[in-house]
Amino acid sequence: MNSIAAEQVKTLKISIYRYDPDVGAKPYMQTMDIDIPKDKDIMVLDALQLAKEADPTISFRRSCREGVCGSDGMNINGKNGLGCITPLSEAVRGNKLELRPLPGLPVVKDLIVDMTQFVDQYKKVQPYLITDKENDGKEIPQTIEDRDKLDGLYECIMCGCCSTACPSFWWNPDKFLGPAALLQAYRFISDSRDVATEERLDQLEDAFSVFRCHGIMNCVSVCPKGLNPNKAINEIKKMLIKRAV
Amino acid sequence: MAMNGKGYLDASNLPVKEFDGIIVGGGGSGLMAGLQLAQSGMNTAVVSKVFPTRSHTVSAQGGITCAIASADPNDDWRWHMYDTVKGSDFIGDQDSIEYMCQEGPATVFELENMGLPFSRTEEGKIYQRAFGGQSKDYGKGGQAERTCAAADRTGHALLHTLYQANIKAGTNFLSEWFAVDLVLNDSNQVTGVIAFEIESGEAYFLKAKATVLATGGAGRIYKSTTNALINTGDGTGMALRAGLAVQDMEMWQFHPTGIHGAGTLVTEGCRGEGGYLINKDGERFMERYAPNAKDLASRDVVARAMMLEIIEGRGCGPDKDHCFLKLDHLGADLLHKRLPGITELSKTFAGIDPADHPIPVVPTCHYAMGGIPTNVHGQVLTQQTDGSDKVVEGLYAAGEAACVSVHGGNRLGGNSLLDLVVFGRSAGLHIEDSFKQGIGISDPTNENINDALKNINRVNSSQDGENSSTIKKDLQEVMQLSFGVFRSAKNMEAGIEEINMIRERTENLYLADKSSKFNTARVEALELLNLLEVAEATAICANERKESRGAHSRDDYPERDDENWLKHSIYFKETKEVSKRDVNFRPKIVQAFQPFARTY
Fold first, then answer.
1. Is residue B405 reached through a cis peptide bond, with omega within 30 degrees of 0 on the bond before it?
2. What is the mean pLDDT of residues B145-169?
3. In chain B, which residues have their Cβ closer than 8 Å to the Cβ of A139?
4. For B492-499, what is the mean pLDDT?
5. Of A81, B77, B370, B530, whose CB has the highest number of CB atoms within 10 Å?
6. Position B8 confidence tier, pLDDT thresholds 50, 70, 90
7. pLDDT tops 50 at residue B458
């Protein structure tokens, strides 16, 4: 954002969750007025950058600023989303913008959460292709129809918006894998090239890993990529049940 | 050692972590090198300032260009090589281009075997689309379909697949660690880097027998760029401060289709799928500039044509300052299937659905063809006073940070992803081999380490002065104005003057926030110092190359000058002088391609 001439701006009241581990004091909400363009919609991330120009100590993650890297997942006026692709026109209510870290994960500083638990759950599902193919310098053939089965699954950007919007994940973040990891599990189960479906299902077959999902659907409503982890979870549940009977 | 308050870091009490090899950067080339080394069983770490999947490789869209002969069974890597040499405007090194084009297919199939969800053909093979500058039969057989694609999310699919493969291989990640400077010993061997863990603010000497700079591009030297906010040329800055050479820094690619106003990328694959550019009169103007390839001429050619349309008053919009990319004739089905990401981005950043409306686009800074010079094994080279190359022991570079040089004066679309994986791998292979044979890197002295701490100590101890964000904005403004698509001596000289003043201001760079934990202000201050080095190198090299070649276009020297400038430019920070280096015309298998007039 460039500095803007006074007549072209309006004021936005932005309220940002602050926590400084160096000080260790209680977290608080810092509220400030920032100038934003009057006739142009900007993104939440742009507004946050403006706030950081006024107070450089505000910390948040950001990288691609176009919704593909998954860095800037945050809670925007009560709803998880990516700052970089959420326009103020969509987010702001009553000229107020309240930004908090993704809920349910330990806060490192300000809007930055510790993603370790989230990534650990991802790693548990063996998020890589398992094949018995010899390396013969050729591709593994896949039909267009089989490849289509991966659409809606492989696009996950690991922003964490879904899992941190999920009450089941809040409750059992160590035992329930959460929507992001389960979407990934189903991405490999669905891949015609993968030979480890049974092994993958074995690992998911307990009371918590999958079955703690109660279909609350927060994951679906917050996913910034429009993915549907709930559907993937239901497919896994069906496979597990079919196997059991 | 935690950075807190104004305290100095000192070698005498700086903790050391020791590895066989470290890789700075967790994008495509870093993860490829990391995978190679992890599989070899070496004690390695990938050091990345962001969680690896946040790296900018994730934003690549259209594909990875490679002659896997899927779309055309007769396709030949030699044709790809010819196109790449021509695309480079003949200053790409032909030994490197040959290596990349020949090695490419095995690497692409390996990525597929790792799980990369490529789009598919009716026969179940990897889908390939048309991209700019790609021909059959050495330019004589018409447009080639050679760019392997996973819809328009190829970079995302590639980066996540590589991250996943690294999880499988058990690669050790130092995630959200910022590398500050290289540590050189008295023999000028590289012995590792100074780095700090961003979360804790703890600084370390990461000691290694081999260090790979895989730090990506530096597009944030420009105000308008497709690049991620993290693309600040950290490895290039480190190399320059260590007294090493950089090469062809004037060669910046302006991608024809960045979304007007936002700068976000719209893949060339749009034109590969049949989209085309129009001016305010609805004219498909590329037919005038490149009668054969039209919209699929190489990027430098298309970007200049667009700028000329705008300069001559045929731009679109109320300010006539952009062109339109027309896709609506392709139909919603094709857009949904092949270009879903573009549809999403257009809605978000241009407020239009490309199935109904053309996308407002403008040439936007996209890619650094230049960088840290290396050989095909990724070994970093520097230039000796007699003009000969010298390997910098212990140091490697790969990907956009490196200049190997496969792109020369202009990169072809889809060649960056191929460059990443091929040369990330080759660096890994060379390190593995060298390690088996035994690497003799002697320890640095405390004085050596303290030299590498100077920069961060200066920032940490700053008492007052100017904040990094205002200086950065001014730097980006200068680069945008004086070193864009069209350049002239007058503008560039004025730009260099301004950069001198900006450098003086950075002497007063002030880090107000001295806190230790997740201090992003500290990271941004250090990034600014890297941006400044890259920008200054770009400016001086651009002014020095007195010809027009590839992406470097001057109105005072409008012609290519093979007699004087069929050369790489080499730049050192210390002298701020530009020297020349021979381009490699000695491929191993094919006969070298000699320069000819470049038309599309």
1. yes
2. 98
3. 68, 109, 112-113, 118, 125-126
4. 98
5. B370
6. confident
7. yes
What residues of B are in contact with residue A20 (Cβ under 8 Å)? 515, 517
Mean pLDDT computed over B485-500? 98
Interface residue A61 vs chain B (CB under 8 A) = yes
Reported pTM = 0.97
Read off φ and ψ for residue B382, nearest 5 degrees: -130, 165
A168 contacts A213 by C-beta, under 8 angstroms: yes
Q: How far apart are CA B249 and CA B540, in angstroms?
A: 9
Q: Across B458-506, where does the E strand assignment appear?
A: 486-487
For chains A and B, what is the number of CB pairs under 8 angstroms?
A: 147
Q: Give the relative orientation of helices B94-114 and B154-169 as an angle to the nearest 10 degrees.
A: 70
Does any CB of chain B come closer than 8 Å to the CB of residue A137? Answer: yes
Cα(B110)–Cα(B117) distance, integer angstroms = 12
Half-sphere exposure of B521 (CA within 13 A, CB side): 24
Is B299 among the residues known to form the active site? yes
Which residue of B55, B341, B518 is in closest CB contact with A108? B518
Two structure tokens written together for A67: 């919704």
Query: What's the 3-state SS for chain A?
Result: CCCCCHHHEEEEEEEEEECCCCCCCCCEEEEEEEEEECCCCCEHHHHHHHHHHHCCCCCCCCCCCCCCCCCCEEEECCEEEEHHHCEHHHHCECCEEEEECCCCCCEEECCEECCHHHHHHHHHCCCCCCCCCCCCCCCCCCCHHHHHCCCCCCCCCCCCCCHHHCHHHHHCCCCCCHHHHHHHHHHHHCCCCCCCHHHHHHHHCCCCCCCCCCCCCHHHHHCCCCCCHHHHHHHHHHHHHHHHC
For chain A, the distance separating the N- and C-terminal CA atoms, rounded to the nearest angstrom, is: 59
Residue B6 has what pLDDT? 61
Average pLDDT, chain B: 97
Structural contact between residues B397 and B235, judged by C-beta atoms closer than 8 angstroms: yes
Token pair 């142009």 is found at A40
Q: What is the pLDDT of residue A136?
A: 86
CA distances (Å), origin B158, targets B57, B63, B108, B216:
8, 9, 10, 15
- The pLDDT score that the predictor gives to residue A2 is 45
Q: What is the pLDDT of residue A1?
A: 42
Q: What is the ipTM, given to two decimal places?
A: 0.97
In this prediction, residues B150-162 reach a mean pLDDT of: 98
Q: What b-and-e string marks burial along B262-276, b requiring 16 or more CB atoms within 10 Å of the CB?
A: bbbbbbbbbbbbbbb
Neighbours of B385 (CB within 10 A): 6
Q: Which amino acid is at A119?
A: V
Distance CA B123, CA A232 (A): 28
The residue among B217, B194, B177, B224 whose CA lies nearest residue B523 is B177
Q: Check CB contact under 8 Å for A112 and B59.
A: no
| Intervals of chain A under pLDDT 70 | 1-7
Question: Once rounded to an integer, what is the mean pLDDT over residues B383-401?
Answer: 97
Q: What ranges in B128-268 are assigned the alpha helix state H?
A: 154-169, 234-241
Residue appearing with tokens 């004739």: B329
* Nearest of B509, B489, B491 to residue B558 by alpha carbon: B489
H helices within B290-414, ranges in order?
Answer: 299-311, 332-338, 340-349
B263: left (phi over 0), alpha (psi -120 to 50) or beta: left
